[in-house]
Amino acid sequence: MSTNGKYVISPPAQAALAVAGSAELFPVRRIWCVGRNYLEHIKEMGQDEKEPPFFFAKHPDMLVADSGTVPYPSLTKDMHHEVELVVALKSGGRNIPESKALDCIWGYGVGIDLTRRDLQIASRNLKRPWEVGKSFDMSAPCGPISPVSATGHPAKGRIMLKCNGQIRQDGDLEQQIWDVPGVISKLSEMVALEAGDIIMTGTPSGVAATIAGDRLECEIAGVGKLTVTIGQPLK
Ligand code: MN
Asked: For the chain, give me the number of helices (H) and strands (E)?
């Protein structure tokens, strides 16, 4: 990739996330997501419990900051919320052993993997890629990133999402099939990881439809919070 010379159009803005309690920003390079990383969610989706988790991607410009509003997206009649622990990397590499994986982490946050469930299931049934269901404008709300110095490395703790004050998702990080070191190690077998990569590490059970006007409040114990409002569709 050449970065010499003048751009013929203005280069896109660098995507970034807030850093908790700071005016500084965490710049985002790539967004990877883990599919089917909690057993109870695999069961509620009617999928094979013995199949290992896997990865898909969203784009950095799809991030939405804390307190943001996500217009109800196009093409779907069944958008779901999936609250997830987000891992933000300060370094990377290829074939990272689990014993070295935590050394790559800058911090943690709370995210929502918004999903056009009807389109995801249709593409799954047609054996097509998942982008139409997973990778759409404003599909990746993510709260501020807290540094490891504040959070430690959370391996257990409540992960919860409320919709309009009612608890919808209520799990524990220790229910993850691949824990965070496992996620980083596996992903680094597939691609080279780098500083600025973030990983949404999968959702516990309780995923459900969300509609315009909903207020989604998420919290992961010891990590942080995220609040998002679902707005009217764009005209
Ligand atoms: Mn997810």
From this structure: 6, 18
Give me ligand 1 centre to Cα 36, in Å. Answer: 7
* Domains in the chain, number: 1
Residue type, 199: I
* Sole residue written with tokens 């919320």: 81
Residue 160 maps to a domain: yes
Q: Which range of residues forms the domain containing residue 117?
A: 16-231
Question: In this structure, what CATH number is given to the domain that contains residue 136?
Answer: 3.90.850.10
Give Cα 209 distance to the centre of its chain: 17
Residue 56 placed within a domain: yes
Residues with CB under 5 A from ligand 1 (ion): 82, 113, 203
Per-residue pLDDT tens over the stretch 105-159 = 999 999 999 999 999 999 999 999 999 999 999 999 999 999 999 999 999 999 9
Asked if the structure places residue 222 within a domain, the reply is: yes
Cα(34) to centroid(ligand 1), Å = 6
As given in the structure block, the two tokens for residue 66 are 């804390």
Reported as a single tens digit per residue, the pLDDT across 41-53 is: 889 999 998 899 9
Question: Between β-strands 105-112 and 69-71, what pairing exists: parallel, antiparallel or unpaired?
Answer: unpaired
